[in-house]
Amino acid sequence: MSDESTGPSRAADPKSRVRAIQSLLIEKEMLSTEAVDRIISVYEEDIGPMTGKRVVARAWSDPAFKERLLDDGVPAMAEVVDIDDETIDIQVVENTPDVHNLVVCTLCSCYPWAVLGLPPTWYKSPEYRSRAVREPREMLREEFDCDVPDDVGIEVWDSNSELRYMVLPQQPPGTEDLPEDELVDVITRDSMVGVERLGEAAKPTP
Amino acid sequence: MNGIHDLGGMDGFGSIEIEADEPVFHHPWEGWVYSIYFAGMGNLVFNIDEFRHSIERMRPDEYLDASYYERWLAGIEQLLVEKGALDREAIEAREAALETGEVEFPADPETDVFGELVAGFRENFSVERPEQEPAFGVGDRVRVRNRHPEGHTRCPRYARRSEGVIQDIRGTNVVPDSHAHGGEAADPVYNVRFEAAELWGTEAADRSAVHLDLWERYLEPTASA
What we know:
CATH superfamily of the largest domain in chain A: Nitrile hydratase alpha /Thiocyanate hydrolase gamma
Strand order of the largest sheet of chain B: 4-3-2-1-5
Low-confidence stretches of chain B: none
Mean pLDDT of chain A: 93
Number of strands of chain B: 5
Radius of gyration of chain B: 21 Å
Helix content of chain B: 25-40%
Strand order of the largest sheet of chain A: 1-4
Oligomer: heterodimer
CATH class of the largest domain in chain B: Mainly Alpha
Number of helices of chain B: 8
Number of helices of chain A: 10
Strand content of chain B: 15-25%
Strand content of chain A: 5-15%
Largest sheet of chain A: 2 strands, parallel
CATH architecture of the largest domain in chain B: Orthogonal Bundle
């Protein structure tokens, strides 16, 4: 068992341990079973990549919106989606023919959860966190089957402050005439983290 | 601290395991861990920097062995105990009593704590502080100081002693190195871009760069500036 001198320690049985802590916090009115259910349902049902997809679809469809979005992410997002623009700060970084952007948090697991939901397990893994900053091009090719041509620069955003990053992927050719509600189906969570390129942009230049 | 959490640039972890269509929480208890994080933050028992630092204080071997939410649970329990919100013996006793059925899981309090927790969480998560005059400007070349604080820091090891160029000024934020230990020091924060070759050596000829948001005290002017 741990104490203050040895620091935090892994529980033998996390399920029964967290149940005990919840039970004591509820008795102290620091938590309630209803709050537990609501917190879980917010992350399971309400917050997810659809928010980010709607923002990207609007940016592809409306150049003036895209400009506002790149200038100050969250106030622009609030025009399209329900987002807490008091607490959250997100910088949107734009992929271009010359630049591919990739998001990581090497120190913990910072992620633009307000627009993408809670991060997938791989994003939080030592495997991804260690390698994304050191050899992003090889990692994307070998682990994500995502080819970034050698003449395209890669900008890696290590999310070490409370400012979070989201990638604005390039719009695949041939989708220009689609309405926003169909464009959202073209956009993926992974493309907004930068581990996937959409449509033609994914193919290496001949 | 130079902890195991500071993973950027390490080798040897191997292939990244990617699970298609994974659920938000893999087990109900992972969502419960999220709820006690929300309780700790929402009741202002601890702040985000104390929380991160608590996880960083796990033994490196345990940190790597534990799953993500096991690390969270360890970090949260430690802070609830250290801050005096809960007693370690009481947690252990309750865990045993719930297992044997000696104690029932409590009924809800009358009050609606969810709204209070959300309000507390928002207050607690706010890192902006009164604006300070930045010492550096966009386009300045800066060097990351070779600091190795014993406590918390958000300056990763791989960037120390490297030179980069300031891209943007992010405003004035509370300094994690201070905030994780009860302090309120604040600094201007800069986005700094580092070329791959500067960070990883000249054999890293790849056309890539890494951006970090760095507090002013992490930086110094370059010798040539």
